[in-house]
Design brief:
Strand 43 (667-672), helix 10 (681-692) and strand 44 (698-702) form a beta-alpha-beta unit. The strands form 10 sheets. The chain has an 8-stranded mixed sheet. The protein contains 11 helices and 44 strands. The protein is an alpha+beta fold. Helix 1 packs across helix 11 (712-730).
Length: 743
Amino acid sequence: MPALLCPLGLTAMVAAAVAAEPAPAPPPPSDPFLRQHAETRGFRAGRPTAVQLSPDGRAALFLRSGPRSRAQALLETDLATGVTRTLVEADGAGALSPEEAARLERQRITARGITHFVLSRDGARVVYGLGGRLWLLDRAAGRAAPLPGTEGALDPRFSPDGRALAYVKRGDLYVRAVPGGPERRLTRARGPDVTNGLAEFVAQEEMDRDEGYWWSPDGRRIAYAEVDESAVERRALCDPARPARPCEARAYPRAGTPNAKVRLKVVAAAGGRAVPAVEVRWDASRYPYLAAVRWAKGGPLALVVQDRLQQEEQVLAADPATGATRALLTERDDAWLNLWPGMPAFLPDGRFWWVTERGGAPEVELRAPDGARLELSVPRALGYAGFAGAEGGALVFLGVPDPTREELYRVRPGTPPERLALGEPGPATRKAVLAPGGGTLAVTWSTLRRLPVTAVFGADGARLAVLPSVAEEPAFVPTTELRQLGGAGGTWAAVLRPRALGAGARLPVVVDVYGGPVPAYYVPQVAHRPMLIEQWLADQGFLVAVFEGRGTPRRGRAWERAIAGDLGTVPLEDQVAALEALGREVPEADVARAGITGWSFGGYLAALAVMRRPDRFQAAVAGAPVTEWEQYDTYYTERYLGLPGERPEAYARSGLLAWAPRLERPLLLLHGTADDNVFLSHSLALADALFRAGRPFELVPIAGATHSVPEPIAAERRWEWTAAFFRRALGAVRPGPPPAPAP
């Protein structure tokens, strides 16, 4: 069994048991597909992203990099002519500030250059960040100029009338008139650990709330979050591969410890000390989480607040002049409540849509301005799965006929939902962006055989333009088969075979797993999307399988909440049961030779599988695994396990370290040294427990990598090492060359 592997130069690391024989060398770095996959960011580079539609419905603005570049440019497509022009050239120059780098990591954005832009309500101006400062672009003139004094500014947003711009700089909120005007500072932080106008860590990482301030519809006021992190534990983010670099102290609230204290305040956009900020008051001791804020035309300043265990939440309407609040509705769930981005969504007359799971699955209600329930607008049979936009009295949303595919719908008060047949017909995953004025809709879709395509459609459903891509296309089409193991009601699975599979061949199985709970609006692993890296892994001599067990979304409340109080047992049981069903239903699957691999929660589940069920899994590759749930963040962990002091048995059941002495199968751990989500300390704790228990294992520290491992060479090596490890452990023989792609 091999000794600890430190290929990337970590200076000191826990050692594994000495191997009885030398470890085989990894495969040479020569696979052209892996290199292409890594350098194209999984073939995402070169495709339109961050699409916004102009309010007049005449243009689509978007970001796009070169086919093997991280630097994104800003482009515009004229929807009448189909002509696309570059508004701002790609530029990846300029180091990111720690604050900006952290925000991009929370959003899983690995591109550089222009990563965000905002369009004024009239569509005349665009603001974007580049080179560490903000730039203002006049669309008609095609001229851009830097805004003075905006070095280090974050999260710019126009006022509703487009005449002013707000942003956050050095932890405080600023406003200035545009195109020219002096900068006005609206807030002054009360201490070094306090920020105004920025979302705290758990809001960005777990609540899908990146915003920390909100303009009033008339542009006269701004509501903002005051975040006090003085009581939050600090974690030192150090890169042991680069010991000369100073460590960064990050505020990281782990389970059971204090969160940031968040207040909501309202300030006059004109500034001035004569008008102090008004604090919005609610019972923050009972509802400490500020989960969402909405301030739409026709609606109140509305906020969604939750209790710490996320079992009760309220939608509140606030008076911005006094800070007083009143409850519009209260939602409860004995397990936990899901958050739904875009909700509540207000109509111009103050009525609003709201997603509830009280009936056992997501459904959308229409409620009166006082919160009274008026009607059921979207029944649970449609499988509400995501918000696309609300404008002109209509709600556009995603529904799921089954967990693997999505359809677009529109609903208006008093009428049943209508399906919008936009994009490629047939099963697909979709997302959509509605124009600010309604009507025009940008739709992105992908299928099992096709990478994402984005097109814009008019209010009548006519296709106006396809946004141009310069992305490279893979040289093969995946063999993915989607099926329900055991028939209707069974586990959804994706199965991929080698493209050069010979008749009657029996193949070892590699289970590619995430397997854990995610926000209810996330696309699951088993979906109509091209599974390219999974196909590459299959082509190395494996049958690759992906299973969606209990705890994952889109199968109703009972299915999703089956993991409450225990993050390990039910997800692992379902992976085992699916593997056994695969062996019965797919003749090529040699389930007696099964490995399992995953990242993040998938890494946790892969390591757990090889320790708890060595009778079913003969090897595991675990990437960035959570090994002690007491060391993961509050909002995610406590949702499923409760507070450590109140539910110690739930944490004991769900942890990995107690299983370390049981390891008897090969285990490879991969972890980035700069991961600020699942810190490297998780893998080090497991490595230490395995070492002290005398159990051999392998550990690959990836120097400088974050949780998303954006560096191409590291992404390439990850899969090379994974395939080589499973070939050794499972006895796979690499098949002959696959057939050439059809012309």
